[in-house]
Amino acid sequence: MDKYPKYISQEKQELFERYLLNEMDKAEQLAFLAKLDADASLNAEFNEFKKLFSAVEEASLHERMNEYHKTFETYSSKEATSKKRFPFRINYGIAASVILLLSLGGIWYFNGGNKTEKLFDEFYSPDPGLPTVMGDTNNYDFYEAMVAYKHGDYDQAIEKWKKLLVTKQQNDTLNYFLASAQMAIGDEKAANAGFLKVIANKGSVFEDEAYFYLGLEALKRGAIPEAKSLLELSKKEASKELLNHLPKK
Amino acid sequence: MNQTKTNQFLARTQEETFVGVLQNNDLVLRSLYEGVYPKVRHFILQNNGVEDQAKDMFQEAFVATWKNVKDGKLKKDNGLNVEAYLFTIAKNKWLDYLRSSRYKKTTRVDKVIHLRLDVEEEESEPSQDQDEMVAMQRAFKQLGEKCKMVLKLFYYERKSMDEISSELQITSASVRNQKYRCMEKLRLLSLEIKSNG
């Protein structure tokens, strides 16, 4: 006699797989569930298989997570894949409008600071940064700081990017990530100034993100109308989601 | 001037993130990991933690979030943001650890205890199920490389028989048989591990 109950047949395994991989149509799914309901032994076999399936998935996820984590371990790796960027002309009109919006917005406050803080916590996470991979780059210093940024060492990233900013005042990528790092350490005033420079660069690829973070910062202060106006200018999905959580009037 | 967004992470919608997590999409999972970890690390290091603890706590939270999406406890329709959810789970796990008996320095705890945010976390699995899962995962590690590869490609990466066949340079029929035999072996090894404690 075998020490353990026999393993299921190949056909049964494949049937269970089809259900778990969502490959059955609705009718087949219902029929399968009815069968499980009516047959305790089949149900037990299915539950055991489901656990084995999950174990393979979870063990594989652990392997992948350790691989993802190498990004943060290879702290000395420097580099970049992103296209070389060039400065855009500043649109002072937009920048002025946003500054006005920020100052006017300051007089509005939402009744319920806790709610806005909670929303801020729910929606805020620093920009993940640009991918950094091994290789040659012309922007060595920029990506060295990016590695620090992605490592969560915002202070070091800020220090490095600030040095670069001296000669690249209007570079939107630089301004955007410097502002992101400043926001991550809670220096909202500096972050706002950086995000404003980004949106002043007409057509910047970071425009939607900059409006989003400006909106979040306003939300954090409890300035709801200001936050809404800024979020409406961002096409980011998260901006739309956040707007849905804010009062309509 | 219209440009393609260079930031692949921010261009992703919540729906894409949910679907990606459900299907173990590597790009989505990597983005989620790389996007949220720095913030969690920053929080933990600011609150008496060290590098290894940040990594462990974050990975625990990452698995919990992944499971909750898979089990349907975290749904895209309920307006939750996966990144924010992951961060909150990690943060709460760290605060729970600071409050636990494993962590004795109460003075620091007083400073952070009020920060805990309410989100529905994963319910703990019954201990028997946990033991079984641990045994199964240990068994997976002990499988031969070939078996691990076939199972990983099929169950985790969700590749088709044909894709696996071309990747491993074996016929589809062999893939099918190996998958079956390897799963059988995984089960046997798990039962052995479990019965030997």
Automatic annotation (TrEMBL), chain A:
Record key words, sorted: Membrane, Transmembrane, Transmembrane helix
UniProt cross-references to SUPFAM superfamilies, sorted A to Z: TPR-like
Transmembrane regions: 90-110
InterPro entries in UniProt: TPR-like_helical_dom_sf
Protein name: Tetratricopeptide repeat protein
Protein's organism: Arenibacter arenosicollis
Upper classification of the organism: Bacteria, Pseudomonadati, Bacteroidota, Flavobacteriia, Flavobacteriales
TrEMBL record, chain B:
RNA polymerase sigma-70 region domain residues: 32-102
InterPro entries given in the database record: RNA_pol_sigma-70-like, RNA_pol_sigma-70_dom, RNA_pol_sigma70_r2, RNA_pol_sigma70_r4_t2, RNA_pol_sigma_r2, RNA_pol_sigma_r3/r4-like, WH-like_DNA-bd_sf
KW Signal (keyword) present: no
Transmembrane intervals: none
Residue intervals of the RNA polymerase sigma factor 70 region 4 type domain: 135-186
Entry superkingdom: Bacteria
Pfam name, any one: Sigma70_r2
Swiss-Prot/TrEMBL keywords: Sigma factor, Transcription, Transcription regulation
Family under the similarity heading: Belongs to the sigma-70 factor family. ECF subfamily.
NCBIfam families, per the entry: sigma70-ECF
Name of this chain's protein: Sigma-70 family RNA polymerase sigma factor
Organism of provenance: Arenibacter arenosicollis
